[in-house]
Amino acid sequence: MSLSAELWADSADLAAAALAHPFVTGIADGTLPRERFAGYVAQDAFFLEAFARAYALGVAHSRDRATLEIFADLLAGVREELRLHDGYAARWGIDLAGVAPVPATSAYTEFLLATAALGDVGETCAAMTPCMRLYAHLGQALVPRATGPYREWVDTYADPAFEELAATLEALLDRLAAGTPAVRRAHRRAMELELGFFDAAWRGGGSVGGQ
Question: What region holds the Thiaminase-2/PQQC domain (predicted)?
């Protein structure tokens, strides 16, 4: 079993909790209140900007051209996600420039950026892989039953192109990281922070400018 597969299996409890989370099930069946989704979009856009910066730090710390180019390609994928959020913002009147991060968002972004700035590239991959793999997992699991106004969100993460990005980052993790305690801690912590992000979104813990 590859390291990425092992780490994902070790966090199967958190992945299952995310799939069963009322925020996620509300996206799937379309019953999630609109204002909670809008708050999530605003927080997630803030998060994705930090995620992009973490990839940029991966570029800066790359030891070879192949790694540099992979991080750059992954960064381009985040730009596409941000364009999706821009589309939501335009339709729903969300001012993404005025977002104030809630504690769950700050905890996750600070963890990512600290890991990317101070850890080695293997640890950076371990901290970033959970976001990609979890969202691909959720999209693929939800797409057969997704209905309602959030179908675009599900389709985005169920798309084979997103799966390819997740698999690319996992392959980079397998190449650059060893199964050290630090790598395992980074992966597990990121999965915990993913669940915390959904908790905050479900509670309505989001700042949405322009509303």
Answer: 14-203
